[in-house]
Amino acid sequence: MSVFLVAGCTGFIGWKVCEKLLQKGHQVVGIDNLNDYYDVRLKDYRLNLLKNYENFTFYQTDIEDLSSLREIFKRHSFDAVINEAARAGVRYSIENPFVYMTTNALGTLNLLEMCKEHGVKKFVLASTSSLYAGQPMPFKEDLPVNTPISPYAASKKSAEVMAYTYHYLYQIDVAVVRYFTVYGPAGRPDMSIFRFIKWILEGVPLQIFGDGSQSRDFTYIDDIAEGTILALNTVGYEIFNLGSNKPHSLSYVIELIERYTGKKALLEYKEFHKADMKATWADIEKAKRVLGWEPKVSLEEGIKRTVEWTLDNWGWLKHVKL
Question: Is Electron transport among the key words of this record (predicted)?
């Protein structure tokens, strides 16, 4: 049994990573500031599920708070740190860039510094496909992602670079996992799939930025969590794409949601946002080769599971604010 610190444990991906580690019998210490970037009812739902496990310990704190982190690292001896704590979302980062830098860059630095001080030799950093904007597809990890087009992407690039520095100086083994459009049950309400399902069930028009032809490499949450856990293996310093390797258009996603809800969508088209990407497509050969990972859940099956979960929990989900 190992002991893991998971920062951002009530976030969508952090929660599922914790759940899978706990199910494997590991000890998990989760930290989260429970901020209200989106409706906290979803974070409460995820946290309550984690609290059912005896091998889970929770601290409500912020990775920007170095003194609190220091106390937690004194109380526990960690085998690895997984940093899932981040301010997410391209559009909101343009409105409030400062909090993205303090959480995503400074917060990561604080965790790395604690790893250095306490001899923790493994660090997994959650990063993003948003870094690949403007690069040729499919996106490969060795592309020169030096021109991020949003503060969100810039802050994530800063975290990746700082992680490399700590690998180089202090021999911390670092795996950076770049996620591609993660979705699934209990997902983020600021993401398109959650919103589309909710809007269709409510009979509200779906707001689509662009014409619906833009495509994403939608990846199911369980696959993403498994890939993140495999990244705990010793790699030196490596970056891995975790995606489906099968981009699908927003229009096709809407068709699937219509199929599984049995309802027809009303569509409202809006101007495409300049900081968004027209398409994402992950080359996942490196994750296959080094981590032995590849996604198992198809988009069709994933949307079906997500719709079913939404219907099962509609009593409280209908009150969630978007």
Answer: no
